TrEMBL record:
This protein's name: Uncharacterized protein
Top-level taxon in the UniProt lineage: Bacteria
Length: 67
């Protein structure tokens, strides 16, 4: 049984809010990362999750939160 696809708009909005990054930037990064992962994947169930995690981590490294 495969995992349901996440709502892309929700994923992008969540990452944008968490990393203080414009949604357009996050959307482009997510789409590019998702395409890259899908191109290399043999199993697709968790590809959207991994793509979101990679984008979130990259943006957090570029824009660390100030506490």
């Amino acid at each position: 049984m495969s995992q349901p696809e996440p709502n892309v708009d929700e994923v992008v909005r969540s990452i944008a809010e968490e990393t203080d990054t414009p949604t357009e930037t996050v959307s482009r990064m997510y789409a590019d990362t998702l395409a890259e992962f899908r191109n290399e994947a043999r199993v697709f169930d968790y590809v959207p999750l991994f793509a979101a995690k990679k984008v979130r981590n990259e943006l957090r490294q570029k824009h660390p939160r100030k506490h």
